[in-house]
Predict the structure.
Amino acid sequence: MAAELCKNRMEEMMPVYAYCLFCETQRCKTIAEYIKRNYGYLCLSPQIIQRKWIKGIPVEESHDWLPGYLFIYTDREITPRFDISGIIRCLGNGVLVGQDLKFAEMIQRRNGIMGSVPLVQEGDRCRISDPAWLQMSGKVIKMDRGRKRCCIEYSFDGSVRTIWAGYEILEQEPSGSK
């Protein structure tokens, strides 16, 4: 119920507070479901849809997009301290602000499911063209042409992070952009 309230308030442009937790990598989905069920907060473990070929048939599988990271959304400020095995710590100083908040809101708008990311070359600065990503930018550091995805390095929570995403929503940044 609280998760629905939080989602409805986001749609009404009401203030939403977002928090990011770091947890044990293989337990993200389980912890997110536990928080939703027992605390009533909207909690997302971002997933990416990866394509791969099995016996010549393309199959899409869901995998952790940011392994070890959970995003919690509330309609009021909270102290994100949960006595749950597997949670390591809350990132930042509690509530997310600035670019980190925009990033968390983008994840919420997509309900935690990241689609695939247009073709650029390794080393290129790129911007994610999908409006849901708020024109986030990064650098392509690896490409996997067989699976039609690339590894993008970007800044979040004051640190450099990497994600794997499909080709479809990348565009090259104009030269001179940082």
Q: What stands out?
A: Helices lie at 2-11, 28-39, 98-109. The domain at 2-114 is CATH 3.30.70 (Alpha-Beta Plaits).
